Amino acid sequence: MIMPDYTLFIQIANFLLLMVLLNAILYRPIRRILKNRREEMDGFHNKIQDFEGKFASYTKKIQEGTAEARKEGLKEKESLKKNGQEEEKQMLQEASSKVSGKIGDARKEMEEKLKGVRLSLEKEMALFSKELAEKVLGRSL
Fold it and tell me: 2 and 11 in contact (C-beta within 8 Å)?
């Protein structure tokens, strides 16, 4: 049978002293380090969640801005296209009016030249017909 004697109390005191020393030297610093690490990791997780939220909001803003810029670009493109078409119409109208004016001038000029040519041909025709008649008849008229 086991008989407790004074060494049992020394062993208990030794054990308690060892527990106190281990707690002070080893367990508390490790628990403090683990606690600090856990707090730091929680802080990192919170920061990550904040950054993910900011990233999502910035991405949404960028997409909205891009869509708005595209709409404005299309509007600007359409307005420029309309302005270009209007200018093209004006230029075509000006060109057609100039061309019609030049065509009218050319027709007048051609009619005047035709009149001049007809008059000269009529005069020459009278001379030729007189000469032809003289040659056919063999005498002068």
Answer: no
Output the six-digit token pair for 64.
């909205």
Residue with tokens 């109208």: 93
Burial 18-51 (b: 16+ CB within 10 A, else e): eeeeeeeeeeeeeeeeeeeeeeeeeeeeeeeeee
pTM of this structure? 0.46
Task: Return the structure tokens found at 47.
Answer: 């920061």
For 70-128, list the strands marked E by DSSP.
none
- Could you give the angle at the alpha carbon of 50 between the alpha carbons of 47 and 51, nearest 5°? 85
Q: Which domain holds residue 30?
A: 19-112
Write phi, then psi, for 5 (nearest 5 degrees). Answer: -130, -165
The answer to whether residue 1 sits within a structural domain is no
Q: How many domains does the chain have?
A: 1
Q: What is the pLDDT of residues 56-112, one digit of tens each?
A: 999 999 999 999 999 999 999 999 999 999 999 999 999 999 999 999 999 999 999
